[in-house]
From TrEMBL:
Organism: Nonomuraea recticatena
Lineage: Bacteria, Bacillati, Actinomycetota, Actinomycetes, Streptosporangiales
Cleavable signal peptide: 1-28
InterPro entries in the record: Peptide/Ni-bd (IPR030678), SBP_5 (IPR039424), SBP_5_dom (IPR000914)
Matching SUPFAM superfamilies: Periplasmic binding protein-like II
Keywords: Signal
PANTHER family reported for this sequence: MONOACYL PHOSPHATIDYLINOSITOL TETRAMANNOSIDE-BINDING PROTEIN LPQW-RELATED, PERIPLASMIC BINDING COMPONENT OF ABC TRANSPORTER
PROSITE patterns reported for this sequence: PROKAR_LIPOPROTEIN
Domain of life where this protein originates: Bacteria
UniProt-recorded name of the protein: ABC transporter substrate-binding protein
Domain Solute-binding protein family stretches: 73-410
Any Pfam family: SBP_bac_5
Keyword Iron: no
Length: 490
């Protein structure tokens, strides 16, 4: 297996951008990369949505700050930063960078991108509960927050805060085609079926070794695995565990992910408004059976919301049960999930059996994610199974916890509003980075789990497929990097 750590030099270099793009002029012998991805764009590749992570994984849209393998902030489109006072951070913008449309990167243009994100509705998750005021002065961007925020540099590393050219912003629409700064130029988006990128021949950093990228979106896991097996793809993300045994083991990399398979229970209405029934559901679930059965041992039983991708999370204190399970007595519940992650429908089927053995009567609802997300967020189901990245945005789990479990969280599927949880999250959010913050995060995790609103079941490992001729693809636990300037296929 290749090393799971991303060398810091790669993390730094992929963000060093170039002058105006001249796509298509490939070096002799340079090949294109055929990439197969799991989920199609949800919002037309709007970088203020989760689609931003696709743009980041293609090395086309970049941010002021990157995170290194340890999760610490490093220079990217900003060469450095300092805290001017308790509320204000100053970022120095890199010189001699041009957007793919040829316009130069300036502090004002960088500030405009950040202001667009701060004003978006809904906001990017990384800005949940954060009020930003962004101004430009000379070659500096000044970012002020309403309250002290020790994680501003981490926040600005989120792909949802990518810096794009002025022409990308057209009213409420944000168009990333030809407006990024990265090693590859996004030239075409074919709805939800694919995208085309060309090498940026005047990239600031080392020129990309590949001539371009051809992207296909294939939600069906069997079809993704077949594309790798038959040589139709160079790189395939999210190989289902059920397909791994059918592939050459030398083409598979297994990466522990900061991703937790969690059962969210609706605390606002329906059966699980009752804490006793939430406790009954928790007692009914056998996570080990899910790991050994559905995931064929390629996952880890969850002890909490945070897993082995964050080794310090194992230092959580013991947490005794706070509520005794109540009798289910045939209580009817709706259990929902989505098909885009191949294992989740099978997880749902096993959970249905476990919950029915505990006395619940379970109706199962399974759809594509695009057709179920809105209902889940509106509280249409009693229980929802979600595969959730816990440090996707900032490298710090507080943003995920605020988004999913605070009263004002934008992704609060559990419909949870608990003053003790909010207080613990506020304490974690204002604690400086380091060991003290980690202890505060684990205290917030305990407060969330004590409500019974979320039942963490297992921590996933991602299986990435690389054809034997592929060199330099990144195995990134945060799902931000995949193809960089160094990636190529022979």
């Amino acid at each position: 297996m290749r090393s799971l750590l991303v060398p810091p030099v790669i993390l730094s270099l992929i963000a060093l951008t170039g002058c105006s793009a001249m796509p298509g002029a490939a070096d002799a012998g340079a090949g294109r990369i055929d990439l197969v991805m799991l989920q199609p764009p949800r919002s037309g590749l709007n970088p203020l949505s989760d689609d931003a992570f696709k743009l980041s994984r293609w090395s086309t849209a970049e941010t002021l700050v990157n995170l290194d393998a340890a999760g610490d902030p490093q220079p990217a489109l900003a060469t450095g930063w300092s805290q001017s006072d308790r509320l204000t951070w100053t970022f120095t913008i890199r010189r001699d960078v041009r957007f793919h449309d040829g316009t130069p990167l300036t502090a004002e243009r960088a500030a405009r991108s950040l202001r667009a994100a701060a004003a978006a509705a809904p906001k990017p998750r990384i800005l949940d509960g954060v009020e930003l005021t962004v101004t430009a002065k000379d070659d500096k961007v000044l970012v002020a927050t309403a309250t002290p925020d020790p994680l501003v540099p981490h926040r600005l590393s989120s792909p949802q805060l990518a810096i794009l050219a002025e022409k990308a912003y057209q009213g409420r629409t944000v168009n990333p085609v030809g407006t990024g700064t990265g090693a590859f130029v996004l030239t075409k988006v074919d709805g939800t079926s694919g995208a085309t990128l060309e090498r940026n021949e005047r990239y600031w950093g080392p020129k990309a070794k590949a001539a371009g990228i051809e992207v296909r979106f294939v939600p069906d896991g069997t079809a993704r695995a077949a594309a790798l097996r038959t040589g139709e793809a160079d790189i395939v993300e999210a190989i289902p565990v059920s397909q791994a045994a059918l592939l050459d083991s030398q083409t598979i990399s297994e990466v522990p992910m900061p991703r937790t398979n969690t059962l969210y229970l609706n605390t606002a209405k329906g059966a699980f408004k009752d804490p006793g029934l939430r406790a009954a559901a928790r007692a009914a679930i056998d996570s080990k059976a899910l790991v050994t059965g559905v995931y064929e041992g390629r996952a880890d039983v969850a002890a909490g919301l945070l897993g082995p991708a964050l080794p310090w999370s194992a230092r959580r204190p013991a947490r005794p049960a706070t509520v005794e399970p109540g009798p289910a007595n045939g209580t009817k519940i709706t259990l929902a999930t989505f098909t885009d992650r191949a294992e989740l429908p099978e997880v749902a089927a096993v959970l249905r059996q476990q919950l029915e053995r505990a006395g619940f009567e379970v109706e199962l609802v399974v759809r594509e994610y695009a057709h179920i997300e809105a209902d889940a967020l509106e509280g249409a189901f009693d229980a929802f199974i979600l595969s959730r990245a816990t440090v996707l945005d900032s490298g710090d789990p507080v943003a995920y916890m605020v988004s999913d479990f605070s009263c004002e969280g934008s992704f609060n599927i559990a419909q949870l509003c608990d003053e003790r949880v909010d207080a613990a999250l506020e304490e974690a959010a204002r604690t400086p980075a380091g060991e003290e913050r980690r202890r505060a995060i684990l205290a917030a995790e305990a407060a969330i789990l004590n409500t019974g609103a979320a039942i963490p079941m297992l921590h996933e490992r991602v299986l990435q497929g690389d054809a034997k001729g592929v060199t330099g693809s990144v195995k990134d636990p945060r799902e931000r990097l995949l193809i960089t300037a160094d990636t190529h296929a022979r």
